[in-house]
Amino acid sequence: MKLWKKWLTTLVASLSLCVAPVAIASAASTAQILLYGAATMALAKQQLLQMDNNNQKQMLANTQAKTGVVDNEAYSDRLENIQRNLVATGLIKRNYDVYANPSKELNAFETIGGVISVNKGMLDALNDDELAFTMCHEMQHGEKRHAINGVLKSIGISTLIDVSLGGNADVLDILLGSVAVNYIDNEFVTMDQEKQADATGFNVFKNTAYNVGGAASSMQYVYEQYGELWQEGFKRVISPNNHPQMSSRIEKLAGRMTLWSGNRVQVGGNTVYVNAKPVVTPAAAGTYSSRRRAFLVAGNLARATHDVYGEATKDDKVVTEAMNKKQPSWNVASRGNDVYVNDLRIMTCADGDDQPAIVKNIQSALEAKPAMLSKKEIQKQNKAWTQKYGYKKDKKEKNA
Fold this sequence. Notes:
400 residues; 9 strands
């Protein structure tokens, strides 16, 4: 008999051998069920941890067999290059196998074994800055072992008990492996786990050379295609929300970018502010909406101010003193269609962007007194933008 089977049997026998009145026996029966449940969940979690740590190649093969793989070196090289840059931060502790799958949907996932897959649709839609944050987010699911909890949540406790009491550990392994592969089709990541992956993912992201505005802009693009991904009213009872509201995720990621800038750079609606002064409302260009571009422009400006002032410690206090204690010198200039601040490229102007005005505005704002708009004012502008330009479900359905 397997060791774990003996443990479960002994556990139940210790309860069954008790002689007690009917009421107490009934209570003991309930306790049996609870103990069986706790024991089988602990056993399953132990098995999943072993799979997560030791079965990476097998899980990669199984997951690729389910999703398919994009046979294109350009996609593989792009993912490997971003992965190297993220690992170089020293903040990624696990090893991950990353590959592209052929789905055209905007999605990526991490599953048991440290396997990360990014949909071709996501790779085609996002730039490297945005894709890097997506991978940071998925790696944080792996760092926190979120997939294990998701798989456990997707298996009924009664199923685990039945398999465990059958005495065949191999059957349990097969069950867990099968559910782990099918887990990618389900939404068992909790809302708290998604929030945690966004937060800790940004902490990795800000330590790279990528544009920190790519975090909010990636979510902005997803919002533009799918809306809030949020159920309201009775629909929420039938299909509970596992992911935070998209607008909330965008706002929080934009807030983290602002904090990193020393609280000097903000985005309200689709306008970029420096020291509470509007510097540019970018024109839409190609697949990039005005707001998506605003986050990317703000991310580059955030790097310029971060390099001088560092990161703010409170979300409502502007850093006023330069890290080197010296008054900074700002040189904003045009080179072709590009706008630079002290040799850092901030944006490439598109049709509809007033480049001379943008240069003048940024120069004036960087030299202005340290300031920031209140959180309430930013939220007001975001709400106004959403009401005017936000996701229109009917429009999307007509174009489908």
